[in-house]
Amino acid sequence: MSYVFEVPKEYGYVLAVAASTVFINTTHKNLTSIMRRASGVPYPQSYATKEEIERNPKALRFNLAQRSHANFTENYTSFVTALLIAGLRYPNQATWAGSAWVAGRFAYALGYTYFGPPGRTAGYTVSLIGKAALTIMAVLTCWNFA
User: Fold this and answer.
1) pLDDT digit of tens for each residue in the chain (146 aa)?
2) Which end of the chain is more exposed for a tag (fewer CB within 10 A), N or C?
3) Measured CA distances, 51 to 16, 43, 48, 106, 137 (Å)
4) How does it sit in the membrane (predicted)?
5) How far apart are CA 111 and CA 109, in angstroms?
């Protein structure tokens, strides 16, 4: 059996959400670079040591920015996969859920970098809701292909 693969007209919005994630990654890169420069943690060192943090509180902020970026990359692949699959059947809903994830990730990056672990909660919650919705829609899309 074969299928004719037709992409919904609204799928362009889904692609726009996917493309917008370039700006999140750039935000992470900029935050990490700014905090690295301020902390004096040299390349290629990925994180400041406990001793460096005790001597220089800005080193902790560098670690927070670095960890926030790592968390983004840990979640990005599953997000974009769910977004692109869900958008095939639910383009409008996927656009909104994906936009929530994007907004939540910006809030997460800024909140975690500047306010530490408690600062990430609001952004995490918003992004989690968006990603959960996308995951459900992606599963339903796959189910309907079977």
Assistant:
1) 777 878 999 999 999 999 999 999 999 999 999 999 999 999 999 999 999 999 999 999 999 999 999 999 999 999 999 999 999 999 999 999 999 999 999 999 999 999 999 999 999 999 999 999 999 999 999 999 87
2) N
3) 44, 17, 8, 30, 47
4) Multi-pass membrane protein
5) 6
Structure tokens at 8: 């919904």
Specify the amino acid at residue 97. A
> By C-alpha distance, which of 120, 110, 122 is closest to 24?
110
Q: Give the C-alpha separation, 68 to 108, whole Å.
A: 8
Q: Is 116 left (phi over 0), alpha (psi -120 to 50) or beta?
A: left
**DSSP letter string over 3-28?**
------TTHHHHHHHHHHHHHHHHHH
